[in-house]
Design brief:
- About 80% of the residues lie in helices and about 0% in strands.
- It is globular.
């Protein structure tokens, strides 16, 4: 869907430039955009490499495992089905821990692995269950202790204190996470109630 949106924006921009007689600006904008993109990538590469290295050290030192153990009881409360499957619980904890530490490259394959394990617990073959939905919500609205990418972009833009956003990021992400979990729980209860009514009607 996102690809269609981008294609529509690009085609619409080109068509509108020809209608308004500003087609020359398209070529200039493309070249300027490509040049700025390369400059941005080079400027943030150093910061990204630094924090990725630090996070990998934290992972290999056992910090990730410690955080995973601390998160396990909380995740089992949010997703009770994890109590019945230690493998799925371990995969979910690993993904959440990677997101918490800002290990984006590690979080993606861990998230795929966790979703595969949760899929095996799902009794329905047609749609995701409440546990899978809750995992997606937690993974999407994940709290990051150090938002490496945002800080690197601020530094590349000339910020004198790129990490001054940390308190705001923590507060906003906590609110977003709480709102997502609350919504998932409410809709999950409504879905279970509707399913129970349908079962009663069929019987």
């Amino acid at each position: 869907m996102l690809g269609y949106i981008w294609a529509f924006m690009i085609v619409g921009g080109v068509v509108f430039s020809f209608i308004t007689g500003k087609s020359d600006g398209i070529s200039a904008s493309v070249m300027q955009g490509a040049d700025k993109a390369i400059q941005l990538i080079i400027s943030i590469a150093g910061s990204m490499c630094l924090w990725t290295g630090i996070m990998n050290i934290a992972d290999r030192s056992g910090l990730s495992e410690i955080i995973s153990r601390m998160l396990s009881p909380v995740l089992r409360i949010l997703m009770p089905e994890l109590k019945e499957n230690k493998k799925a619980c371990s995969a979910v904890c690993a993904n959440v821990t990677a997101n918490l530490l800002g290990l984006g490259n590690a979080a993606t394959p861990l998230g795929i692995k966790a979703m595969k394990e949760l899929r095996r617990l799902n009794t329905s073959t047609e749609c995701p269950d409440n546990t899978m939905i809750m995992f997606v919500v937690i993974n999407t609205a994940s709290l990051q202790l150090i938002p490496t990418t945002a800080a690197a972009l601020r530094q590349a833009a000339g910020s004198s204190d790129p990490y001054s956003i940390l308190p705001a990021v923590w507060i906003s992400s906590l609110i977003a996470l709480a709102a997502g979990i609350t919504a998932a729980k409410l809709f999950g209860k409504a879905s279970e109630k509707k399913r129970h009514i349908l079962i009663m009607q069929r019987s």
